[in-house]
Amino acid sequence: MNKSLRVLSLLSIVCMTILFMNAIHKSDIDSITSTHKTYKIKALKLPSNLNLAGERVPIEKPDVKERMDRELLVNTYWQSNGLLLLKRANKYFPILEPLLRKYGLPDDFKFLALAESGFSDETSSAGAAGIWHFMKATGREYGLEINKNVDERYNIEKSTKVAAEYLKNAKDRFGSWTLAAAAYNAGKYGIARRLEIQKVSTYYDAKLANETERYVFRILALKEIIKNPEKYGFVFEKEDLYTIKKTYTIKVDTAINNIASFAKGFNINYKELKIHNPWLRENKLNNKSRKVYEIKIPIK
User: Fold this and answer.
1) pLDDT, tens digit (0-9, with 9 covering 90-100), for 93-117
2) Which of 5, 137, 207, 275 registers the highest number of CB atoms within 10 A of its CB?
3) Cβ(130)–Cβ(142) under 8 Å?
4) Is 236 helix (H, G, I), strand (E, B) or coil?
């Protein structure tokens, strides 16, 4: 009899334990479900009219669809970075757009510059610099002055002219703006070699290095999101976006011994002058050759 009671007691304890654990588990599930009611990760519907500089994206191809979907998802749900890029785009696109028209480059290439640098002055781990992320060798090859004192990769006007020249040359070589964009990432020789070996003629048919395979799709994703921010959940007021002060330009053909003192002469400080002229890399301008430099002065 005592043995039977002990067995029943043990069974009761086991049953109570199971019920208790189930209650805790249900509570956890309810908590998770409650969180998901306020924040849902939704699959995105890919637009059918995606294009780069008027060149249609063949979204009906399964691998193209997957690659486009990946970049659109990454750039939509990395919300902090996406909002930061939207804010910076409002600051720099008005500067880039007339320059792209001036140098004969499609307007879509402002999204390439955004994809390259995020419109940040930071130098990449490989040494690329400026909003177009030129390496030193490439910049010098195209005529930019690059040294410890002056680095014209940070001059938006001059670096945009070089980017346009590079991309237009690539377009002439490969026959499409899409391949020109890919060549900006992988180099013209690298793209030409891959196309030749694989016996294909388009970006979407080529098997490329992972970075280059993602590159054009990232540009396309940024274009889609920035053109349609509300569609992808980005909510902001106009005053939330970044802007840049208006400037006027002065020409200098002599050395500047102290840029901080030079700035004070225009009623601005060293930092303000450097923000608008990041190509000046030191607190002086050597200019032994008496070259004419254009310096932007912010209007107070």
Assistant:
1) 999 999 999 999 999 999 999 999 9
2) 275
3) no
4) coil
The span from the CA of 278 to the CA of 282, in Å, is: 10
Q: Specify whether the CB–CB gap between 285 and 252 falls below 8 A.
A: yes
- pTM as predicted: 0.86
pLDDT in tens, 260-274: 999 999 999 999 999
Q: What is the C-alpha to C-alpha distance for residues 265 and 63, in angstroms, rounded to an integer?
A: 59
Round the CA-based radius of gyration of the chain to a whole number and report it. Answer: 28
Q: Is 16 exposed, middle or buried (0-12, 13-18, 19+ CB in 10 A)?
A: exposed
DSSP state of 231: G
**104 contacts 164 by C-beta, under 8 angstroms:** yes
- What is the DSSP code string of 249-263? EEEE-S-BS-HHHHH
Cβ atoms of residues 278 and 295 within 8 Å: no
What are the C-alpha distances in Å from 131 to residues 66, 184, 248, 255? 29, 13, 21, 26
Per DSSP, 279 falls in state T
